[in-house]
Amino acid sequence: MAAKRLGAEVLSFSPVGSSLSKGETLLDTFLNLQAVGVTHFIVRHERSGVLEDLAPLLNASVINAGDGWHEHPTQALLDLLTLRERWGSFKGRKIVILGDIRHSRVARSNLFALKKLGAKVVFCGPTPLCPDDFAALGATVEHSVEKALKGADAVNVLRLQIERMDQGFVPSLADYALTYQLTPSRVELMKPEALVLHPGPINRGVELSSEVADGPRSVILEQVANGVLARMAVLALSEQGRSLA
Amino acid sequence: MPEQVIVTNGLVIDPVSRLEAVRDILIEDGKISAVAAGLARKPALKGVPAIDAKGKWVIPGLVDMHVHLREPGREGDETISTGTKAAARGGVTTVLAMANTEPVCDSTSQLAFLRAKARTDAAITVLFAGAVTLGQKGEKLTEFAKLRAAGAAALSDDGRPLMNAGLLRRALEYAEDLDLLVIDHCEDLTLSSGACVHEGAEALRKGLKGTPWAAETVQVVRDIALAQLTDARLHIAHISAASSVEAIRAAKKNGVRISAEAAPHHFALNDKDVPGYDTNWKMNPPLRGAKDRLALLAGLADGTIDAIATDHAPHGCAAKALGMDQAPFGVIGLETSLSVALTDLFHKKVLTRRKLVERMSAAPAALLGLKNKGTLARGADADLVVIDPDALWTPAAPFFSKSSNTPFSGRRLKGRALTTLSAGRVVHAL
Questions:
Q1: Could you tell me if B330 and B240 lie in one domain?
Q2: Does residue B276 sit at the A interface (CB-CB below 8 Å)?
Q3: B326 contacts in A (CB within 8 Å)?
Q4: Which residues of A touch B208 (CB under 8 A)?
């Protein structure tokens, strides 16, 4: 959407039915697409760190749209934009990221960006999904959702994927929801003007209740709108960078 | 006339003979025939080809009890020929090749094939481990007695942990009666499943799945109990975790007949050293935390860890290009183990030179029951290495190995093998 608004020609590529499914290496696929004139790659891939090796080998601009559990920079940018529109500054703000942190690229990118802007970041979830080792990355780890939310300026609620249940991280979605679902009463623990974010798609009734998702604190649809703007900005800036080079 | 070579004026370090002094070594027909000062001046030895080792160390050839030579099945990554040339370059004169080839070395016919191949292709002595279970499937024991008769030097399902404790118990009992060493790869698959790095902050930062130290220690502790139960010998491969070192130290104090090895990458590097997503740093067990590495150094110093072994595991570039999550585990090590040990153990004063030779040569030879190796005593096989302990060099591809997957590429190392002799023949010279 962001690229279309900027007037770019958008080519959608997925590995199913492509040469990738016939054993072509990822690098070869990129080189081929570059050879037919692709100038910007917007890449989502299940492998963490996939772009670290690929990007330096390409002339095209490479934008990370989510690599495994590692990073999702544009999601963090749009979250930041949403918060900044409300707050102006991040200094002294407390932001809780709630849910499956272990497998979340959104949580990591938000952490790195928010820390840089002077905010305090609290990771909250059950230990299997929110290990204490995250403290070494600069997050405050808190397993009690009540303690985490107390006095917070915003909470960013992450989706709980159904497969985490089969993998034994939580016994059931309902069991998870009992302790960690963002309910209206838990929202009350935050500051009165605190905001509720969610990167989507939402599992209503699992990680957050419908009342909260649709409630007055929710800025979820603002995030969606800001997503287009933030990504337009990234593309425009990368284009500027290209013309400078 | 016997075939003679004389190695002159080197500082001979032989822990078995308790010798650490400048000596000449006379080799006749592939055996050490005399070790004494001033041998070269004897009129009877005039004209014998000499290797000048003045100012250098002369040590028994290294015994690496944990290598993968990939033959048969994956000759594109390594062969007996290339793997043993790599060994010779690194001062290694005896290797124990693991059984996880394709097909698995679990039968007398496989062993016969491999030993015949080694006779024609190998630059050094190659010993072969037989599998503990058929196809390394962990279900049914191989025929230990037949494997031993066919020349198996030890038993191991390395690469595949033996998850079935009952089966391992019987294997230990039966192998002990045959005086065969069982080598176990300790890893609880229910804890390590899907992981590619050490579990901890670094894994979280990179978004990679980690395996906890406990995946190893759970099995080490189980193995100690089984070794105690059976009063059999058991050797633990490539230990990586501080808690494993502690458990083995305590078990040895209690008289349990357990031994252990550590790999150079584990005692020289930790998980914070891994650059980005470089798969040349991916191995199993993974590089662990800083405290784990220090525990390995302490274990090497006090003898809790008996031997240094590389777990030399060649993989081609294409396989290693699959990314951190998909690329196979393993790094090569034969060409760098001595240099890394000199750099990180001897020069950093973790081990004396005598203890270093003990861990890399005498101890593994003793664990494998090799009476003529791991020593420079008269009558021993003339496997020896002339070392410059201070030579600076930087390993880089191309290697003698067919593969170049090593985290030590580009790392400045201090000390290396100048000349390697296997059975009295020069198999490597700088």
A1: yes
A2: yes
A3: 47
A4: 48-49, 68-70
Give the ipTM of the model, two decimals please.
0.90
> Cβ distance B416 to B388 under 8 Å?
yes
Inter-chain touch B324–A137, beta carbons under 8 Å: no
Chain A, 62-121: which have a CB under 8 Å from a chain B CB?
Answer: 67-71, 102, 105, 108
Q: Distance (Å) from the C-alpha of residue B202 to the closest C-alpha of chain A?
A: 9
**pLDDT single digits (tens) A39-91:** 999 999 999 999 998 999 999 999 999 999 999 999 999 999 999 999 999 99
Domains and CATH numbers, chain A: 2-70 (3.40.50.1370), 73-224 (3.40.50.1370)
Range of the domain at B71: 60-367
> What kind and span of H or E run contains B51?
strand B50-52
For chain B, the maximum distance between any two Cα atoms, rounded to a whole number of angstroms, is 70
State the smallest CA–CA distance between residue A196 and chain B in angstroms: 25
Nearest chain B residue (CA) to A46: B325
Alpha carbon distance, N-terminus to C-terminus of chain A: 26
How many folded domains does chain B comprise? 2
Q: Is A146 on the interface with B (CB under 8 A)?
A: no
Nearest CB to B208: which of A25, A48, A53?
Answer: A48
Q: pTM of the prediction?
A: 0.94
d(CA B135, CA B157): 9
Q: In this structure, are B139 and B12 located in the same domain? A: no
In the DSSP assignment, the letter for residue B35 is E
Cis peptide before B72 (omega within 30 of 0): yes
- In SS3 terms, chain A reads as CHHHHCCCCCCCCCCCCCHHHHCCCHHHHHHHHHHCCCCEEEEEECCCCHHHHHHHHCCCEEEEEEECCCECHHHHHHHHHHHHHHHCCCCCCEEEEECCCCCCHHHHHHHHHHHHCCCEEEEECCHHHCCHHHHHHCCEEECCHHHHHCCCCEEEECCCCCHHHHCCCCCCHHHHHHHHCECHHHHCCCCCCCEEECCCCCCECCCECHHHHCCCCECHHHHHHHHHHHHHHHHHHHHHHHHHC
Candidates B211, B272, B277, partner chain A, best to mutate (most A CBs within 10 A): B277
Tell me if B11 is assigned to some domain.
yes
For the stretch A225-242, pLDDT in tens is: 999 999 999 999 998 887
Q: Is A53 on the interface with B (CB under 8 A)?
A: yes
